[in-house]
Amino acid sequence: MKEALDFGASAYLLIVRDLTAGVLADLMEYGMEAQLDPLVEVHDPFELETVLDQKARLIGVNNRNLSTFEVDVKTCFKVARCSRRRPASPWSANRHRGPISDP
Q: How far apart are alpha carbons 91 and 56 in whole angstroms?
């Protein structure tokens, strides 16, 4: 995060797949204390629930499977449908062109 600050960034990326809930909470708090907004990236409904529990405001769904590197644009809809809560500002990443409509 220091590098993000040094280069004038206003946000930093946290990939939830690689973090425990405790580490995620610590990194979010540390960044916000430094006046940076955490952009948290999820890949499945379980990760989405974790970030919602942490009160994340900027949430991204990565449509790329990080194990196979295949992209499925429907991933963002699957993740959103499985959530018991709605994120405040969800976004979808990877190969999005034009308006998003639920297939």
A: 13
CATH code (residue 78)? 3.20.20.70
Question: Are residues 16 and 42 in contact, defined by beta-carbon separation less than 8 angstroms?
Answer: yes
CA distance 95 to 71: 8
Residue 100 resides in a domain: no
Of 69, 65, 71, 73, which Cα lies nearest the Cα of 91?
73
Answer whether residue 28 is part of any domain.
yes
Which structural domain, as residue segments, surrounds residue 31?
2-93
- Torsion, Cα 6 7 10 13, to 10 degrees, reads -90
In a domain, 71, yes or no: yes
The one-digit pLDDT tens for each residue of the chain (103 residues) are: 888 888 999 999 999 999 999 999 999 999 999 999 999 999 998 999 899 888 888 888 898 888 898 988 888 888 888 766 665 555 566 654 544 455 5
For 10, list phi and psi in degrees, rounded to 5.
-110, -5
